[in-house]
Amino acid sequence: MRVRILVTSIASAGALLCGATGVSANDDLIDAEETISNEPDDLPPPPECWWTSKDATAQDVADEQGFWRQIDAGDHYDDVLIFIENGTLQRTFISEQRTYALQERVCSDPDHESNGRLRWTLVGPPNPTVYWDELTERVTKRVPLPAPNLGFETRPDGSFDVAVNLGLWIAVDNPDDVVARAEPAPGVWAETRATLDHIEFVSGTGGSSGPCAGAGTPLAVTASDVVDEGPCGYTYTSVDELGEHTAILRATWTVLNTTSTGASERRPDIVLETAIPIEVYEIQTVGTSG
């Protein structure tokens, strides 16, 4: 298609810029080619795409935890905390003090090649209370079974010989607190702490002792000739109790969550039991005539 394009002189151009409405008789006319597009004017705009937070569920958390456990059940898994914050799956690398959120690419055209893509993007530290669930889970797994100390020597197989009328001093040998902590940013932290609260002893013959505060009271080595039972103790007193029995040592731990913000929360107690094989025997005395 050929068109006529009007090109004015410099003077005429100045006049037009100043608001003139006419052109000079000396204006030149030239021919030029103009390309006309055959595309319609009402074409839709190209699809728009943007990144947005991806909604997460408890199953997403479990899947992500399983992924890290599969990689390494040791250092890597212990370094990563998985959680949901504001509906979004996030993970914190404790050693790096960095937190990432999962985002999804969304396009106005659902068939666009980048629609549905995922990425992890760096975000600020979350409210530290989001770590409590996983920290509590880790502490629960690490709290040990109570290791019994009854004031008698332990056999190699872990059983005890206990004499009738000789008192037990009941205690546990592993009472230290169990702690899991996350610090996603300097000065921002969450902690779960399990503390041994009390122990109980069940004799296996119908008797019991406790609850005794804390770890109980072990028998001092220098008091090995003590006959009476300890402050947390038990005594088998009847010949009917002679023989083999299975006693129980029960330990109850309290679980407390705290954060740098001052928030705190008590979780359900952890109760663990250790079965103790015991053989009750009678001390035989031999007398001689004068």
SSE class:
mainly beta
Oligomer description: single chain
Largest sheet: 6 strands, mixed
Residue-averaged pLDDT: 82
Shape: elongated
Structure explained in plain terms:
The protein is mainly beta. It folds into 3 domains: 2-33, no CATH class; 49-126, no CATH class; 142-281, no CATH class. 13% of the residues lie in helices and 42% in strands. The protein has 4 helices and 17 strands. The chain has helices at residues 10-17, 58-71, 75-79, 132-142; strands at residues 2-7, 28-33, 49-53, 80-85, 88-93, 98-107, 118-123, 148-149, 160-163, 168-169, 171-172, 178-185, 188-202, 208-213, 233-234, 243-259, 264-281. Strands 9, 12, 13, 14, 16 and 17 form a 6-stranded mixed sheet that branches. Strands 3, 4, 5, 6 and 7 form a 5-stranded antiparallel sheet that branches. It has a two-stranded antiparallel ribbon with strand order 1-2.
